[in-house]
Amino acid sequence: MSARLFHFLFPEVCVVCGKLLMPREPGCCADCKEGFDGFTDARAAGHMLMHSIRSHFGKADTLISQASCHYRYSRHSPLQKVLHSMKYEGNYTLCRAFGRELGEWLSDVIQPESIDALVPVPLHRLKLIERSFNQAEKIAEGIAETFRRPVRTDLIERCRYTETQTGLSVSERRENLDAAFRIAAEAMPERILLVDDVVTTGATVVAAAAALKKSGVLAVSLAALALTIKE
Ligand SMILES: [Zn+2]
What is the pTM of this model? Predict the structure, then answer.
């Protein structure tokens, strides 16, 4: 069935406002998208993302060499509906579409030639069964359309949930995260782009980057759809 006919028979609605979508509006309408709090510069967004991670974990620069994110996110912002639909409703279309845009946005700061593989932050095995898919993986598939690099889900595993970091010192936080991820492959690519949907404290991405670096990966870069901003 052609995409056009499919759209005619099964019209999709915007996850934010519920309006019928045009064929070139995957998951979310253009009007709602305009209302999202997007960064205007990919490099400045990267600095802000790293600054936020540093404020929780000290010098994260030894772990993450380049970074960027596309949107600022706060609870009750319209973007919340998008992130929720990606995470809990299995909205592949949305993940892919935002991933594709993130890939284009990122390539200003992180050159695709400087990356060997895209690695979505993995969910814990049990969580993956419960949710049936990992939204970070679908976002990474969207990025891969621009980057033309493989999405590798076989390199790293999550061995336990990342516990709450509130009230811990920087060194305690690091220690707490040390065993959160395990390397699952024998040969690792040299330069990895780690992909996640939202960075809040950065606990998860710092732990994943630490595990990757420990295994001999030379450079870990970070791409996130959104950075949580305190209200
Ligand atoms: Zn809308």
Answer: 0.89
> Structural domains in the chain?
41-228 (3.40.50)
Please state the φ and ψ torsions of residue 31, each to the nearest 5 degrees: -65, -45
Residue 85 pLDDT grade (very low, low, confident, very high; cuts 50, 70, 90): very high
Nearest to 158 by CA among 208, 118, 201, 198: 208
CA separation for the pair 120, 139 (Å, rounded): 8
Phi, psi of 80 (to 5 degrees): -60, -40
Q: What is the pLDDT of residues 199-214, one digit of tens each?
A: 998 988 999 999 999 9
Q: How far is the CA of 69 from the centre of ligand 1 (A)?
A: 22
Q: Compute CA 122 distance to the chain's CA centroid, rounded to the nearest angstrom.
A: 10
C-alpha to C-alpha distance for 7 and 33, rounded to whole angstroms: 20
What separation in Å is there between the alpha carbon of 139 and the centre of ligand 1?
Answer: 20
